[in-house]
Specification:
The protein is built from eleven helices and 13 strands. The protein folds into two domains: 211 residues, NAD(P)-binding Rossmann-like Domain (Rossmann fold, 3-Layer(aba) Sandwich), CATH 3.40.50; 83 residues, UDP-galactose 4-epimerase, domain 1 (Alpha-Beta Complex). The two termini are 37 Å apart. By secondary structure, the protein is of the alpha/beta class. Helix 6 links the parallel strand 5 and strand 6. The structure holds uridine-diphosphate-N-acetylglucosamine. Uridine-diphosphate-N-acetylglucosamine binds next to helix 7 and strand 8.
């Protein structure tokens, strides 16, 4: 197939583009590069032995999207583009609603005009909110807790309404748990701008000497070691989940929701210890106050993705840390020339 990937130069996007190219698909990436580097796509081309086409454009620009659909004639879309920092979304909610929600509407309108009605959307476990018991199951009521999460929830609603309005739409809502790791080549990986918000990128920057120590947000939760539990998923497993969802949509209409997670909770201290093992030397940390908005523990029930897609995670926490470390060690400043 020929697939248009929004946000294809980003962390999850670049790994998915590589997986798509390796599976024999043709890819056109649409990305505005606000939070990513074109170098990622150059390296994806190197790894795959063939290139994805690239259009530098913002998803809120319908004319640019129309041109991309006319020029490249994709048959399906995987939609990653969006802003994703929870804290930032509280300060600049309009930017989040404009980029994420309005941007998705312009993408869907452009798709409809070009009769492309198959889409896989990057949603998040954050839509489950604070009231659901863990593990999370797709049929639970959702209710996000911050503007970023609400953009994901609103886009899910828009896509569900769209699917109900016209049976020709084929829609997959993929709720990601905590993506970490990197391609095993060490050539592509996560390259956060500024201070990383997420755990593993922060640990990796301490390990490579860019930060002094990890602050563990809260050591007094009601969990086995007092730190929060999350469901970490290797980014290559996640990328493969997208290909599985796309395959499913080739012979299923309608709107489908799947958790993409491992089904296992890992604590902050367990992740820290696994990363130390991958690095082979101690990584300084200290227990700090809780981070507002953090939930003590959640993980996926991934059984629907296994039953419907034949997909489940196969890569371990150990591999996540080894691969993430290889990327960070070989690229201490990310894609920026060091
Ligand atoms: C966070 C977002 C979530 C988003 C996801 C995207 C919040 C509250 N949640 O999820 O909405 O979908 O990122 O990847 O921001 N931790 C530390 N020290 C650090 C960083 C993190 O101890 O420097 C802890 C956190 O308290 C948490 C765990 O590590 O217990 C994982 O944190 P993180 O990687 O930010 O993911 P989430 O909070 O699960």
């Amino acid at each position: 197939m020929r697939i248009l990937v929004t946000g294809g130069t980003g962390y999850i996007g670049s790994h998915t583009v590589l997986t798509l190219l390796e599976a024999g698909h043709d890819v056109v990436v649409v990305d505005n590069l606000v939070n990513s580097s074109p170098e990622a796509l150059r390296r994806v081309g190197e790894l795959a032995g063939r290139e994805a086409a690239f259009v530098e454009a913002d998803i809120t620009d319908e004319a640019a999207l129309d041109a991309a659909f006319s020029d490249h004639s994709p048959e399906a879309v995987i939609h990653f583009a969006g802003l994703k920092a929870v804290g930032e979304s509280v300060g600049i909610p309009l930017d989040y609603y404009h980029n994420n929600v309005a941007g998705t509407i312009s993408l869907l309108r452009s798709m409809d005009r070009h009769a492309v009605r198959t889409i896989v959307f990057s949603s998040s476990a954050t839509v489950y909110g604070e009231h659901n018991p863990t593990p999370y199951v797709e049929k639970m009521e959702i209710g996000a807790m911050n503007p970023y999460g609400r953009t994901k929830e609103q886009i899910e609603d828009i896509l569900s309404d769209l699917g109900a309005s016209d049976p020709r739409w084929r829609i997959a809502l993929l709720r990601y748990f905590n993506p970490v790791g990197a391609h095993p080549s060490g050539r592509i990986g996560e390259d956060p701008q500024g201070i990383p918000n997420n755990l593993v990128p922060f640990i990796a920057q301490v390990a490579v000497g860019r930060r002094e120590k990890l602050m563990v947000f809260g050591g007094d939760y009601d969990t086995p070691d007092g730190t929060c539990l999350r469901d970490y998923i290797h980014v290559v497993d996640l990328a493969e989940g997208h290909v599985a969802a796309l395959n499913y949509l080739t012979d299923h209409e309608g709107v489908h929701r799947w958790n993409l997670g491992s089904g296992t909770g890992t604590s902050v201290l367990e992740m820290h210890a696994a990363f130390e093992k991958a690095v082979g030397s101690p990584i300084p940390y200290e227990i700090a106050p809780r981070r507002p908005g953090d939930l003590p523990a959640f993980w996926a029930d991934p059984s629907a993705a296994l039953a419907d897609l034949g997909w489940s995670t196969v890569r371990t926490v150990e591999q996540m840390c080894e691969d993430h470390w290889r990327w960070q060690k070989n690229n201490p400043m990310g894609y920026a020339p060091s």
